[in-house]
Prior knowledge:
Elements: E1 10-14, E2 17-23, E3 30-32, E4 46-49, E5 55-59, E6 64-68, E7 73-78, E8 85-88, E9 94-98, E10 114-118, E11 124-128, E12 139-140, E13 146-151, E14 154-159, E15 171-174, E16 180-183, E17 191-196, E18 204-210, E19 221-225, E20 230-235, E21 241-247, E22 261-267, E23 272-274, E24 283-288, E25 294-299, E26 304-310, E27 315-322, E28 326-329, E29 335-339, E30 347-352, E31 358-364, E32 370-373, E33 379-384, E34 394-399, E35 404-409, E36 416-421, H1 486-500, H2 505-514, H3 526-543, H4 551-575, H5 582-589, H6 591-601
Antiparallel strand pairs: 1-2, 1-36, 2-3, 4-5, 5-6, 6-7, 8-9, 9-10, 10-11, 12-13, 13-14, 14-15, 16-17, 17-18, 18-19, 20-21, 21-22, 22-23, 24-25, 25-26, 26-27, 28-29, 29-30, 30-31, 32-33, 33-34, 34-35
Amino acid sequence: MASAEEFPALALRSSVGVELWKKAGTGFPYVPYEKFTRDESKYCRVLEYSPDGRFLAWGNGGKVQLCRTSDWEVVASLPRPKAFYLKFSPRGRYLMTWEIFCTNKDNPEGSPNLYVYATETGEEVYSAVQKKQVEWEPGWSSDESIFAIMLGGEVFFFEVNGPDGFKSSTRKLGGGRNGCVSLAPNNGQPYLAFYVPGTKGSPSMCKIYQYPTLSPTQAISSKSFFQADKVEMMWNKRGTGLLLLTSTDVDQSNASYYGKQALHFMSTKGDSFAVQLSKEGPIHAVAWSPKSTEFIVVYGFMPSKATLFNLKCDAVFEFGESSRNSIYFNDFGNLVLLAGFGNLRGNVECWQMGKERKCISSLQAPDSTLLEWNPNGEIFMTATTAPRLRQSNGFKVWHYSGALLHETMWPAEQELLQVAWQKFQPGFFKEKSVSAEKVVGIQSAQPKASTQVYRPPAARGLPMKVFDLYSDNVQKSTIPGLPPGMMAKNEKKKKQQQQKLQKRPEQQKTEERKEQSSDGTATNNSDQVIQDKDVVDKKRQYSMRITTGDPQKDRKIKNIQKKLYDITKLKVKKFNGEPLKDTQLAKIDSEASLIEELQKLTVS
């Protein structure tokens, strides 16, 4: 391992500011670093390291601070109090900021909301109106000589080292429809992928070009596909292979709540394949190995499958089925973590890649909202952060053998928002062989989650075989104000409900609506009436049309509203005791993240 001074630092963003933590000596733990002046603003909303590790930038609600990591001194303060996102160019020479686009009666056209600054001087070199919040980032060639930005359906290319620099574009690509562009990280003349969504009757299209040859007839490779409202483009590290994860917002066949997904492969040699997956269900994660010769896909209904593919899209290794939805390669590609977060239990498996391909350790990191490998490739960090989770915030550092090396629980009155490893120049750390030796770690101070089955108070203390929710063996309590005989009547209804659970859901629902009690009230109690009213209210609420002026954003809002309405109906079914599938329970668990996404889209 590197010395304490060379060992990557952790930048932390919280509800009380930005601070830096480093190792105190050759071992652990991590402690606040006295050479970094803590920013104590309560409105720090974004933090980002440059890819080469030379700079750290954050927005504190008043300005964007640009810090040099060699001495941790602030070298520039940029006048962007509303900065929402930050992004560095590949070599850290430029910093891009994006903020929410706004108009008012005094400025109906709005002002630029995307800015580019030179990191060495803090000088503003470019600005534009970029209304898109998703895929807002401009593209760069790996040597930063080409800057590309998509505006109004066209891609504008700037040769920043040329005589015009950022003043005027030298080439354009596109034709008036929404789409996206992605530049490959290859050396030399950059490759780029240009995607245009299809219209009624025509398919979506993705083409690979090599700059500056951008004629539609001179594309190196092309791929067309139907049922693709959007696409996520992922280049391998060498910039020779491209994965396209296509998806629709709604699956017309109703086979999937998440919409229809497909995975395609394209190469700069002209190859084009559809990646064949052997299990039905959503595609949870896709990740290239840093070695650029293989990739992993996690897919299918839970327990999901994980499969390793080569550049011909042949399945070369199966990791088996488990509750997973995430993939994390270290920087060298010799280790990969397969994990299950979000609505899953937080199991993490560490697999050795190469010829061995074996699971070398496993651990539990429940309630983790982020995971990131240390650049040295041997340890990684997990964290529980707000706003995804506002309780038990903190971070942990692990060795790949499964040992817990460090743990910090954040104060309960504060919120931990982000944790990020310091980055370094490529080649600073060398790949080390994977050892089977188990590293000695520490014991977590957090209590382990109980694995016992929940039992209601009335059943506690009784033998498990005696307890039955509808059994007379459970002692019955007297409810004050309940008419005589009503308890027995309710017990009878409960038994009838249990019998109905064995019937088809459609038949059960019909019978429950028809059945009336002796006093003329429906069998379903007032709680059911409240639940039905809630569904009606939610339907009315989610049918209200929110217009932002951005058609793409409006479609997203409408789709999220539909999903939230569907979740409300599922919650009613769960309340009524109807059995739900794992996928339906997963939808209910996604409600908080959908509401958060809806709030971001509707911010004006």
